[in-house]
């Protein structure tokens, strides 16, 4: 089993950049916001939950940040419904109004459910999963790219998919379908938006050790799934945040349309 290492932010790599994160009150969104701030970016936190945003801000305020990065100057909280066009335009417009630019969007809002066979998956579950995971990404790309095109700065759009979007995942037909859809959305928009200097990529973590993931599977199934990860552990939120920060940076300036696995080798067999 591999031992998690400390993910070390690269000082000032994202200095001067503006990023927005949807689902920012969730574990992955919050860890990514922390990483972005530690690398010098200004960050707009977008979530539907006011209480979640308040807690996220409280957590980030306690970080040991670079001396020129303060919560007042580098953090903006935006309550918005990411599944509605009005909500998406709100978070894009407020971010640009506050800081005059938009360099990166990490579209991380998501929803899963306890493993359920196709026979027992309801239409309501299907619709909710598609709305939160896929519709929100479509709207996010549409309006983020519109702003980036108008600003003429290019940018990076990163979609939070999953290894469930790369291989069959029995028990998660709706979730897997939603995450597969993000690949098609990514590749098509990467081809469309490259002329504006806009890169679009997907990340595909294996199980990330969060409450949402733990609620999806039984303990027995969790043990079975872990046995198929060659590096012998689940991803942690810092693993994901480090990859997202890389994709946001100039180090990834020639990556677009890529499906980047963060899976400890799980999709090697």
From TrEMBL:
<keyword id="KW-0521">NADP</keyword>
<dbReference type="InterPro" id="IPR002347">
    <property type="entry name" value="SDR_fam"/>
</dbReference>
<keyword id="KW-0560">Oxidoreductase</keyword>
<protein>
    <submittedName>
        <fullName>Putative 2,5-dichloro-2,5-cyclohexadiene-1,4-diol dehydrogenase</fullName>
    </submittedName>
</protein>
<dbReference type="InterPro" id="IPR036291">
    <property type="entry name" value="NAD(P)-bd_dom_sf"/>
</dbReference>
<dbReference type="Pfam" id="PF13561">
    <property type="entry name" value="adh_short_C2"/>
</dbReference>
<dbReference type="InterPro" id="IPR020904">
    <property type="entry name" value="Sc_DH/Rdtase_CS"/>
</dbReference>
<comment type="similarity">
    <text>Belongs to the short-chain dehydrogenases/reductases (SDR) family.</text>
</comment>
<dbReference type="GO" id="GO:0016491">
    <property type="term" value="F:oxidoreductase activity"/>
</dbReference>
<dbReference type="GO" id="GO:0009688">
    <property type="term" value="P:abscisic acid biosynthetic process"/>
</dbReference>
């Amino acid at each position: 089993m591999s031992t998690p290492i400390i993910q070390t932010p690269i000082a000032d790599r994202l200095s001067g950049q503006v990023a927005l994160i949807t689902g920012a009150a969730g574990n992955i969104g919050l860890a990514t916001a922390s990483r972005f701030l530690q690398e010098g970016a200004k960050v707009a936190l977008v979530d539907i939950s006011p209480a979640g945003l308040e807690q996220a801000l409280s957590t980030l305020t306690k970080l040991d940040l670079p001396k020129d990065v303060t919560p007042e100057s580098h953090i903006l909280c935006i309550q918005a419904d990411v599944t509605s066009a009005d909500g998406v335009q709100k978070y894009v417009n407020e971010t640009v109004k506050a800081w005059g630019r938009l360099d990166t969007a990490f579209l991380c809002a998501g929803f899963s459910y306890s493993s359920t066979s196709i026979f027992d998956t309801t239409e309501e579950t299907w619709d909710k999963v598609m709305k939160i995971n896929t519709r929100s990404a479509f709207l996010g790309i549409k309006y983020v790219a519109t702003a980036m095109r108008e600003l003429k700065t290019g940018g990076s759009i990163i979609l939070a998919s999953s290894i469930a979007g790369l291989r069959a995942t029995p028990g998660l037909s709706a979730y897997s379908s939603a995450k597969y859809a993000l690949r098609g959305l990514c590749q098509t928009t990467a081809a469309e938006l490259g002329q504006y200097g806009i890169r679009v990529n997907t990340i595909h973590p294996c199980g990330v050790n969060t409450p949402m993931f733990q609620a999806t599977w039984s303990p027995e199934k969790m043990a079975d799934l872990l046995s198929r990860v060659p590096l012998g552990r689940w991803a942690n939120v810092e693993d994901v945040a480090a990859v997202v920060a890389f994709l946001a940076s100039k180090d990834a300036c020639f990556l677009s349309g890529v499906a980047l696995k963060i899976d400890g080798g799980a999709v090697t067999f």
